[in-house]
Write the structure tokens for this entry.
Amino acid sequence: MSSILISRPALAAEIDKVAEVAGYLWQKGWAERNGGNITINITEFADDEMRRMPAISQPLSIGATLPALKNGFFYCKGTQKRMRDLARDPMANGSIIRILDDCAHYVIIADQPVMPTSELPSHLSVHNYLLSQGIPYNASMHTHPIELVAMTHHRKFLEKDVASNLLWSMIPETKAFCPRGLGMVPYQLPSSVELAESTIAELPDYDVVMWEKHGVFAVDTDIMAAFDQVDVLNKAAQIYVTSRNMGFEPEGMSPEQMHELSVAFNLPK
Ligand code: 2HA
Ligand code: ZN
């Protein structure tokens, strides 16, 4: 086991969860080649010894100044690394970074100088937003779920809450386990600051947002919870697609059934 994890079982357990989810993303066909990325705020596990660990990289630019991240620690999937490899060896396919005092640069501290994900500006900007709002979410995940991405190739589903309402009505668990629904971010260049900003603009209302014709971005308390939200949404999308393939438009649960469910499960909206 990696040296930083061996004396920190709680941190090791979080990294184990990342590896488990990375395996699911690959098995589901949502993580072709180096597709997708994961970052986890692990600052709560940073003891004094970890805080003193020397940098194993030069200071690197985040591409944004993020005041809420000062001296924070993150596990990040490595750029160009594959989820299927991360599933076997998370510390060789990702790294732990520390944000510097200027809140605009970071250094890698463990295990190897693996450069973080190309979507680092989006991921860290999102963590900065979550921390500044006092939202207790430690995980952010980006992946390419097939049926959900396919839906964003149709104008109708890009309108606010059209996809959410359709997906919720496919199977009752969807609204129960993804109660805030699915936000929509119009197409932006991958890795761009504009994509990060548009994502953050949706987070006051949604835990999961679609990046048009690209993928989903999800946040939650831990990586397993973020994965579960995307998994239930994509399951609903698969039921929709399967019905269409069987030659009919699915009926969907009725407004009365949706209302009854929302009351019974004490759900918003
Ligand atoms: O990191 O999916 O959007 C690979 C990607 C970028
Ligand atoms: Zn992507």
Summary: The longest strand covers residues 94-99. The two ends are 46 Å apart (CA to CA). Strands lie at 37-41, 60-61, 73-77, 94-99, 105-110, 139-143, 182-185, 208-211, 215-220.
